Amino acid sequence: MASLTPVSQSQSLLEKPQFKSPALQASFPPVSLRSPSFRFRVLRKLGSVPSRRGGALEMAPNRVVVSATIAEKPKKRYPGEAKGFVEEMRFVAMKLHTRDQAKEGEKEPQGQPVAKWEPSVDGYLRFLVDSKLVYDTLEGIVQKAAFDSYAEFRNTGLERSEKLAKDLEWFKEQGYTIPEPSTPGVTYAHYLEELSEKDPQAFICHFYNIYFAHSAGGRMIGKKVAEKVLDNKALEFYKWDGDLSQLLQNVREKLNKVAEGWTREEKNHCLEETEKSFKYSGDILRLILS
Question: Which of 8, 38, 55, 273 has its Cα between 20 and 30 A from that of 220?
Fold first, then answer.
């Protein structure tokens, strides 16, 4: 068994005469167990490397230290995200416009530009009737509020149902027959009803695109159509009580507030619904040319 003799006793043993012969000392040069050089050699054998700091030797631990700090992967930023979720929705919507509609547009033009349209009063009436059905549906959904967030969008000042009712009454007074809602309007209204009951993020996408599109491109289209078939009469559909820019800003803030409670996946789901919104609205818009 290996000896467990203390170091102090081992040093005394080396001092005895039999261990002081010239031959033995030549083979084993005298060394102090307390000397730095001896400690350095022993520590190197053990795998610990001392370092010198301020003239004194310090022993580094016999282990590898791994930094606990791991660089985090930069978070992906979505276009418009810094300004709020409404800006993200606007960015996606602009991409679905054509270049002649918006500078950010990426879609290829389909059909003639609005400036070259040849609308008819009958077609315009079909468009207004189907539009009213969609706005009636939207306003009914936020009043019923299947999800609490919908209640935020009651009485925003952007509502169009009453305005459209006045316009249709005016056409009736002019002797026009008001048609029943057609397939595009009925289909979209039904889709919105179903969506609002089970998918609030997707519904909010449609809510945003319908109201905000009408306040921008919709007004421009209304003006062009009025020039060609209504002797420039401005319909109530294109009028708002109060400052439109402020009404829109109020709704932007509400939309951003609601979206703050969504996960990134839910926000992306909302954005992905944009193309469907454009498709349904486009079907109704094309009634003007029917």
Answer: 273
pLDDT in tens, 98-120: 766 666 667 777 778 887 899 99
Tell if the pTM clears 0.70, that is, is over it.
Answer: yes
- What is the 8-class DSSP label of residue 177? P
Q: Give the contacts of 230 (CB within 8 A, at least 6 positions apart).
A: 121, 124
Contact 124, 163 (CB under 8 A): no
Q: Which residues neighbour 258 within 8 Å (Cβ) at sequence distance 6 or greater?
A: 149, 152, 204
Encode burial over 232-248: b for 16+ CB neighbours within 10 A, e otherwise. eeebbbbebeeeeeebb
Please name every residue paired with 78 in a beta bridge, in sequence order, or none if there are none.
Answer: none
Predicted confidence (pLDDT) per residue in 57-71, tens digit:
454 454 444 444 455
Strands in 176-278 per DSSP E = none
Q: What angle do CA 136, 94, 266 make, to 5 degrees?
A: 70
